Amino acid sequence: xxxxxxxxxxxxxxxxxxxxxxxxxxxxxxxxxxxxxxxxxxxxxxxxxxxxxxxxxxxxxxxxxxxxxxxxxxxxxxxxxxxxxxxxxxxxxxxxxxxxxxxxxxxxxxxxxxxxxxxxxxxxxxxxxxxxxxxxxxxxxxxxxxxxxxxxxxxxxxxxxxxxxxxxxxxxxxxxxxxxxxxxxxxxxxxxxxxxxxxx
Length: 200
What we know:
Strand order of the largest sheet: 1-4-5-11-8-7-12
Order of helices and strands: EEEEEEEEEEEHEE
Number of strands: 13
Largest sheet: 7 strands, antiparallel
Mean pLDDT: 86
Structural class: mainly beta
Low-confidence stretches: 9-23
């Protein structure tokens, strides 16, 4: 399984320096019409702090529920699949800071929008699923941020978090498989940012 690397950089401070490579002067002389006025160019260079925070988060390229069966009786019938996100690099994090990893369905614009898989040829056929954290609770019970729900908060390299994608096959109960059968796909959007650990 291929993984994707998400690299992020957060500049903690910026420095302003004035470049000086020599002094060039122009004399202003009120007795000379051509030298009564003059211009001075002012320049500065903004440099990034060499100690800026830098991180790399690894996310899976693909998660596959595999083949799922229509339940014979009505009731909860779950299919689950692990999804693991890892912190590969976390350099120069300030004290009390961490790397928040947020996730949402690619189609979601608000907290009530579900994680979903859409049939490849019948767009009206949609299967919803959940992301369950290690406390076996849906992450959608947590806070909705502008870029999704919190998947995990990393504070150092070598850490990883494994949640579960959980699909209730009861959605397929009594459905016409000549229509509902086939391939489904969806997309998860991940977003990362440096946050104050104490504020979350």
